[in-house]
Amino acid sequence: MNLRSFLFISFIFLLSVSNVSAFGEFDYLNVNQEPIIRIGLATNARSVSITTTDSSLVAVSPDEPQRFLATTKVSVSARVYRPPEFDIYHFEIANLISSQEADAVAKDVREAINEKTLVKLDAKTNTWRVRVGEAKETIEEANEFKIGLSEKGFVAEIITEKIVQPSTDAVALSNQLKQGGKSEVRSLIKPTVSSQPTSAEVNPNLREVIVNGGKEASFSSLKSVAFGSINSRATPVRLNGKAYRGRIEVFVNSRGSLTVVNAVSLEDYLLGVVPNELSLPAIEAQKAQAIAARTYA
User: Fold this and answer.
1) Burial 248-285 (b: 16+ CB within 10 A, else e)
2) Contact status, residue 165 vs residue 200, Cβ threshold 8 Å
3) Contact 72, 215 (CB under 8 A)
4) Mean pLDDT over all residues of the chain?
5) Is the pLDDT of residue 172 over 60?
6) pLDDT of residue 277
7) Architecture, CATH, for domain 85-164
8) Residue 281: strand, helix, or coil
9) Alpha carbons 102 and 118: distance in angstroms, whole number
């Protein structure tokens, strides 16, 4: 690098971190947070292995607290989104011979416990049933409610119904994809406003990031997931055996596979890029290369 190039790059760098006042003086800006450099490592990975020689890996996703994985190795892949399933519990008084009998039982229940009722025909047995109250979300609540009915003289069955309910993240990601045009990113990058499930429309082609690493470190996410060491500056994280400073971020792309990115602070980026791009040992040459690399980044 000649002197003219060095001076030009130095001038550009100074402009990038300062403002020039009307009197020709420099007012330096304070950067509240060190800039993050994102470097693409893979764009069509089916699975990757992420390890550390630190005591544990950590993982973080947008709008979520940092997760300590209690393991030094995880494998990451992508799969079709599987909405969570859960059971709810209904209560029904069964084997009533006629609709008149069912109506009478329903009336007695409403008067006794002030719960709503629903009379319906059981087509399989050609008998009538009375559904009582609201569904319960846990078996403990269901058993308690059944005991309460029994104490009032009503013998009810617990009917288990399995519910498939897309998460709020699934709905948010579906909206993101609908509005995002031809974006390569197919993982959630926008914040969600609620953690409660919803019945809104969900894109049938959603894919999620799958993390496998033992009991504490196996989970799925519709968001991007970034992995790092506990002490990331002292202990690099490794992708398929190769060490990287900062974090390894993984998200689903438009091909349904994984894109892998190294997210690293600017200073740590310079620690790696300057020695790799410049073989000269002279300290002044390394300083100039650091300025050029910082400006380019």
Assistant:
1) bbbbbbeeebbbbbbbbbeebbbebbbeeebeeeeeee
2) no
3) no
4) 82
5) yes
6) 54
7) 2-Layer Sandwich (3.30)
8) coil
9) 9
User: What local confidence, expressed as pLDDT, does residue 10 receive?
Assistant: 43
**Distance between CA atoms of 219 and 108, rounded to whole angstroms?**
48
This prediction's pTM: 0.66
- Ranges of each domain in the chain: 1-30, 85-164
- H or E element: which one contains 95? strand 85-96
- Residue count of the chain, please give it: 297
Copy the structure tokens of residue 25.
Answer: 């003086």
Determine the pLDDT at residue 129: 96
Collapsing DSSP to helix, strand or coil, 124 comes out as: coil
The predicted pLDDT at position 215 comes to 82
Contacts of 224 (CB under 8 A, 6+ apart): 61, 62, 185, 187, 188, 189, 209, 249, 250, 251
DSSP-assigned letter for residue 266:
H
How far is residue 149's CA from residue 154's CA, in Å, rounded to a whole number? Answer: 5
| Run of H or E residues at 43 | strand 36-45
User: By the 8 A CB rule, do 265 and 38 touch?
Assistant: no
Residue 14 in tokens: 């100074």
